[in-house]
Amino acid sequence: MIVSNIGWGLIMLITAVYGMKAMEKLNFVSIPFLMIVMAAGTVIALKTYGTAGIDAEVARTMSFMGGVSLSFDFYAVGVITAADVARFQKNRKETWKSTVWGVFPMGVITLALGAILTKIAGEYDISLVLIEVGLPIIGVISIILSTWTTNSSNAYSGGLDIVSAFNIPDNRRREVTIVAGVIGTLLGACGILNHIEGFLGMLAFLVCPVGGIMLADYWVIGKGKKENWHSREGIVWPSVIVWAISSFLAYKCGVGYYGIGFSFVLYLLAEKFIPSARSLSRE
Predict the structure, then answer these.
(1) How far is the C-alpha of 59 from the C-alpha of 61, rounded, in Å?
(2) pTM over 0.90
(3) How does pLDDT run across 179-202, given as a tens digit for each residue?
(4) Separation CA 52–CA 121 (nearest Å)
(5) Could you tell me how many helices (H) and strands (E) the chain has, helices first?
(6) What is the signed CA dihedral for 208, 214, 217, 218, rounded to 10 degrees?
């Protein structure tokens, strides 16, 4: 199993190494296929299991609010890191269209189908439902494609973020992506996914405050005008301090996405009462 995980992880890493063009081609094939599989899987599950399970009680592993918090944390991290891909959009309109017409509807659909399948089949994974009802090949292909698209995006974002964080030349992105992808693959093979809930929760505590700073800096201080935003070399310490305090406060509250609100308010206060905050964050 470990050898298989590492092997498939390295294969999927190749797409991220080649960048957005390769990922675009992969998604062009995989997303329509997965949408068809999801629709077919739901129909087959309904025919096989009926609707009796919809009203059945299921064993709960967490509270309702715990589920809401985990889901929000997951999507918050995804939204904040979406800029890694959205930066290739031609303009704001294209970014808006891809979100409203693409990401949001698919997110709602997948959540709805996941809830339906969990109730009627007792299984949240459409791929496993297809395998159980006698369509193993399609089920296995859907598992591979869904995992491939996710892992490629994660590896690409990881490499890009490391390049930005450590001021590594952009032409070294491929090498950095390989290193990040290999480390992630090895961690996955060692069983980090067995602690996925705790990992996502901790990730939300660290990432969500970044989103609050971005919102405050661009939309409030910069008034939402791209010409008011400027990149700067080095570490912007007021932002780092706001991020650290917000992460700590969110952790103490036990809710990751609170960090967005904490950092939003604290960053605006820093800009108002610490003149160096704005001068350090802008040239």
Answers:
(1) 7
(2) no
(3) 988 988 888 778 776 776 677 678
(4) 10
(5) 13, 0
(6) -140
